[in-house]
Design brief:
By secondary structure, the protein is of the alpha+beta class. The chain is 42% helix and 20% strand. The relative contact order is 0.18. Helix 1 (2-33) packs across helix 7 (198-205).
């Protein structure tokens, strides 16, 4: 019995140490992306607002990832729907950024979609702005509220007006959001998600989910 207790204590200690190590890793990763972005307001590069027209917001029926694919398809003149995706796979396959990126490339072969993870704030703004300037909506990951509950969510970035501190997002919860740059970055970094459950934090630390992540489409 004592031997079993010792083994249990050792295992519990290892689990605690591993959890602490993962939390430290996550803190370091998060700190590295939270750079000072105040220079964007004086940078002439961002003086011209950029918007993508023709993105129709839908309310998701299956998943936010599938809904973003449907919105992108409709904007591109296609007829892909959440239901068609679910019928094809029998499940949701876009729960992670890598899988979402793979499906974007599969469904839209005329474009090349690239995932960018853990970008610094300034890098995220730059990548998003440049993609929008080409007239293409930008899928991205962020924290969003559904019925006052924070969730991990996909949406389409459709506009940036840096001089007026305004970011426009087509949110598949069924509406367009107009938010400030700070709120945008607080949510892409998941800093806005203050009471995030431990299992979500561990998933971020293990690389299952990512912060400050978007998908350039070219």
């Amino acid at each position: 019995m004592k031997k079993i207790l010792r083994v249990v204590l050792v295992l519990l200690t290892l689990i605690v140490l591993l959890t602490v190590a993962l939390m430290v890793k996550l803190h370091v990763q998060t700190s590295s992306i939270l750079d000072d972005y105040s220079s964007i307001y004086s940078n002439e590069k961002y003086h011209t607002p950029v918007y993508v027209d023709g993105v129709e917001v839908i309310k998701q029926d299956v998943s936010c990832g599938y809904a973003c694919l449907e919105m992108f398809s409709a904007w591109d003149g296609g007829n892909l729907t959440e239901e068609k995706l679910y019928e094809e796979y029998g499940k949701v396959i876009t729960s992670t950024g890598n899988k979402f990126c793979e499906e974007m490339n599969r469904q839209f072969p005329d474009y090349t979609t690239t995932i960018h993870k853990y970008l610094k704030n300034t890098e995220l703004i730059e990548a998003a702005y440049e993609n929008l300037a080409k007239g293409i909506p930008v899928p991205f990951e962020w924290a969003a509220k559904y019925d006052d509950t924070w969730t991990l969510h996909y949406s389409l970035l459709v506009g940036m007006d840096i001089p007026n501190n305004r970011i426009s997002v087509a949110n598949p919860y069924g509406y367009t959001e107009e938010i400030t740059v700070k709120e945008f970055l607080d949510r892409t970094s998941f800093e806005a998600y203050k009471d995030m459950p431990l299992f979500f934090k561990l998933a971020f630390a293990l690389g299952i989910f990512e912060k400050n992540t978007l998908f350039t489409v070219q």
